[in-house]
Amino acid sequence: MTGRQEWPGVDSEREADPLAELLASLGEQVRRRREELGWSRGVLTRYSGRSREWLGRCEDGVSVVSLAAVCRWASVMGSRVVITLVDIDESVPTRREQTGGERA
User: Fold this and answer.
1) For the chain, which domains are there?
2) What is the pTM (predicted TM-score) of this model?
């Protein structure tokens, strides 16, 4: 057993893990917005009430983050959260495909 979650309708050859991709994308977006504002992790955590270490793990896509935390971060950064569901057959590039395999 590989320990990988089997997702119905997902091409196993791509080894897609929808949750991991979502967390990585979300973390990258939070980091990008924070950096656009010129904020350190400390500044965002001071406004949002979370630890800098936890924010770092979320930005790195390795911690599961609640929708409430994401909405709080977005609010203090002058942003809003928009969630879009797409057809599984629609071509949505993975984070790796978007960045050419490297962190942006």
Assistant:
1) 16-86 (1.10.260.40)
2) 0.68
